[in-house]
């Protein structure tokens, strides 16, 4: 998972844009013939089958993390361990660097999310509302940057981080992620969609530009800010590439990097599936929490055609 | 420069000279953090990497110091035409990723579109729950999902257990380097094995992804279809129902309505999804790093991973940077091809007439049907 992907931009646009759709009344009256009912039943069977396919792997993940290793190998599909054991979790928390990884991920994610919310909205506001020479050039630059694939930048980013002497430091891990072009783009689009009259009133009352931005405009931008929070949190929590190229020191390893190394054998011997799956399950929890808090916003951008 | 001569999009006539000047300063101040960070960690790196890709830097000291020399296109040559191991590795990586793109992009697009139309039904109960279920794999970390995938697709894993129900012995997934289109054949006819492109025989080019890479294909569809479903869903919800209703009134069946009325209207979104899919698929890295590191027999090697491996593990920084730029070029070329292909297949005139006819019908019968 990369941080500034065009996918996120499109996702973000969908998140911000979907909220304002007008409701459309239901027009055709539905007739419940036996054929229709059978058709509906087929639809539900298909939908449930696919939902099972999408969710069952995660249930297997959690179940297996409480199994013993022989049990995991012998009953890969079973959701109930033969013998319940928390050995995997004990090992992770008491006998490994896992807590350090978790702490690092948390630090980086919180700072990156805060930074992006602030800097992206600041720049987005300037690009949509403030008139200054070179504004179009700045915006063109932001758009151009979005076009460069992240993976292509891995090695180049290392070169600069190394040159600046911030390799193997929190600065090197956090600073390059602190703003993202997609976020600026989302904020700019949002600010353009809200009326300027309130700001003008504040300006006439003598408020300075930053004050108008901070106390008048930003509170109105909550929907867009929430989008930025979701995308930044998820993006930086799941980020892997950047931490591979910016650190080497085990005390700076993040969850993604640590679990990836555990998985690809740089840190472990043998399969140890319960352990790895437990690690995977724990690292999914924070994103899952954010996801479920904002779930209505994400998947129900509008309640669909039928309202009321 | 005064406020009067400044071209203003929304003319308000009230902004005085002082305010404009204040805005200029604030404008630069507000965008400065973004400019500095994006410039420092995106533009400067690209320039530095461009230099490294044509230099003989070995990773010691600074690449812009005096003892690093310009060596022209040698690094690109090693990868593209020198005939050595580097070229062969790149050929293999390109083949793996090409098959990955060819299989993942159409599949994820079709699955996403299918899911979106299914959960967009008006009379569907639990719509939110279904959408949540389908989207969930997309928000979780690629590392966590890859770990899960390794377990599910292990020799004695869940997938093989399910395959076993049908009395078939499942493959050794992540340890199986055989191309899926070789169908178990160990060697091919002479005219296919005798010729090579980028050090890889024609036989290997057409062999398809290895069984191991195929497991990654399934992983990609699993994790991306939810995101693209949301994009299609947003587009579907913004469609006016009038055209479809007019088609329904005229007696078009469900399939006709979908392929002739709905799908043509979704073209812009289809375009976005395919573009994003292409760009994403050429960047597979996380899964490879976490899962197989290119094994078995280099059949899950991708250009992105090869670039990393060449630089960080092999100390071939020039080659690593060269691969990154070649990858960049590939992504641009593929995006352009896709734009061209989809533009050619723009809504045909005949089909367009269909749609406008319906729109006219809809306009005529008007919203009257609703009242």
Automatic annotation (TrEMBL), chain A:
CDD domains the record matches: TM_PBP2
Keywords carried by this UniProt record: Cell membrane, Membrane, Transmembrane, Transmembrane helix, Transport
Residue ranges annotated for the ABC transmembrane type-1 domain, each copy included: 102-294
Keyword Nuclease: no
Main localisation: membrane
Pfam family, one: BPD_transp_1
Intracellular or extracellular location(s): Cell membrane
Transmembrane region(s): 37-60, 106-127, 139-161, 173-191, 212-233, 273-294
Membrane topology of the entry: Multi-pass membrane protein
UniProt xrefs under PROSITE patterns: ABC_TM1
Family: Belongs to the binding-protein-dependent transport system permease family.
Protein name per Swiss-Prot or TrEMBL: Sugar ABC transporter permease
Organism in which the protein naturally occurs: Pseudolysinimonas kribbensis
From TrEMBL, chain B:
Protein species of origin: Pseudolysinimonas kribbensis
The keyword Acetylation appears for this protein: no
Transmembrane annotation, as ranges: 24-52, 98-120, 132-152, 211-236, 266-285, 321-342
Pfam families: BPD_transp_1 (PF00528)
Membrane topology per record: Multi-pass membrane protein
Domain ABC transmembrane type-1 per the UniProt entry, residue ranges: 94-338
Record key words, sorted: Cell membrane, Membrane, Transmembrane, Transmembrane helix, Transport
PANTHER family for the chain: ABC TRANSPORTER PERMEASE PROTEIN, INNER MEMBRANE ABC TRANSPORTER PERMEASE PROTEIN YCJO
Protein name (record): ABC transporter permease
Location(s), subcellular: Cell membrane
Principal localisation: membrane
Keyword Membrane set for record: yes
Gene3D superfamilies the record matches: MetI-like
Similarity comment: family membership: Belongs to the binding-protein-dependent transport system permease family.
Domain of life: Bacteria
UniProt xrefs under InterPro entries: ABC_transporter_permease, MetI-like, MetI-like_sf
